[in-house]
Amino acid sequence: MDEIQKNPPPYAIRSVDHALRLAAMLQLEGELTVSEAAQRLGVARSTAHRLLAMLVYRDFAVKDDQHGYRAGLVLELAAHSPSETSRLRSAALPHLQHLVERIGESANLAVRTGDTTRFIASVESHRALRVSSREGMVFPAHRTTAGLLLLAELPTDELGELYAQARYEGRPDERPDLRRLRADLARVRRNGFALNHGRSERGVVAIGVPVHEHDGTVVAGLSVSMPSVRYERGRLPELVTTLRAAARTVEGSL
After folding, report:
1. Mean per-residue pLDDT for 114-124?
2. pLDDT for position 10
3. What would you report as the CA-atom Rg of the chain, rounded to the nearest whole angstrom?
4. How far is residue 50's CA from residue 136's CA, in Å, rounded to a whole number?
5. Which 8-state DSSP code applies to residue 122?
6. CA neighbor of 188 nearest in space, from 221, 158, 166, 212
7. Can you say whether residue 198 is alpha, beta or left, with left for phi > 0 and alpha for psi between -120 and 50 degrees?
8. 146 Cβ partners below 8 Å, 6+ apart?
9. At 5, is the pLDDT very low, low, confident or very high (cuts 50, 70, 90)?
């Protein structure tokens, strides 16, 4: 399949991008100093200071007595939102971090909305060659590991309605081959995991397992992603076993 690329907007505003990245760091990673922010963004300390000052002004950050910056009211409200997505993300993040430490590859949690998959939590590997964070990104569900896991739970008629030809009027190239997709989903159900070799992005291999709610409903897909040059098929059983153990810990935290 063709590679899916997330290109920057044609008129990207670098200062906005830097501010958004800083806000994400504060929310996901905790306190930052001006020097740490400058180093992470690759900018001068004066630039980092101005960006953080603006985040403080808009309540995205708070400056403490030791000259550090932490998440402000706006980010804290978002983190403690009672929404299902926020609940899943909060439950999964510590376990994603542990998974990265154990496997050494980037880990993700994603949910399905219609025919798309949204990555709601992502922790990058520390290796120089790694799959970057997918958090916040949206992909066609049939091209992602989590999407396959979640689509595999749909009844036959509901899957047919989701990918009905009429829904893709004006964009027929985006509609998957339904016969092939059904075969792929049957394999996922049979195996209990999904293996994605270059399906969403060329040169990337992802392996995922479902995350269940207390009633048994599959609510998300937990996966690890790695450069294809580092994937060894002989490790697949070990990776799946580790992923299933991580999924159970996430389920226990829900």
Report:
1. 89
2. 58
3. 20
4. 25
5. E
6. 221
7. left
8. 108, 109, 110, 111, 112, 117, 119, 194, 208, 220, 221, 222, 223
9. very low
Q: Return the pLDDT at 234.
A: 94
Mean pLDDT for all residues in the chain: 88
- The DSSP code for 104 is -
Letter for the amino acid at 125? Answer: S
Distances (CA, A) of 69 to 34, 54, 73, 104: 8, 12, 12, 29
Please list the helix, strand and coil fractions of the chain in percent, rounded to the nearest 5, in that order: 50, 20, 30
Asked if the model's pLDDT at residue 8 lies above 60, the reply is no
Can you tell me the mean pLDDT for 23-44?
Answer: 87
Reading the block at residue 66, the tokens are 């030791």
**Residue-wise burial string across 31-66, b where 16 or more C-beta atoms lie within 10 A, e elsewhere:** ebebeebbeebebeeebbbbbbeebeeeebbbeeee
Contact assessment for residue 62 and residue 72, using Cβ atoms and an 8 Å cutoff = yes
For the sheet with 218-227, list strands across it. 138-140, 116-123, 106-113, 218-227, 204-212, 194-197
Q: What is the rounded distance in angstroms from the CA atom of residue 249 to the CA atom of residue 83?
A: 20
Give burial (CB, 10 Å; 0-12/13-18/19+) of 90.
Answer: middle
Residue type, 121: A
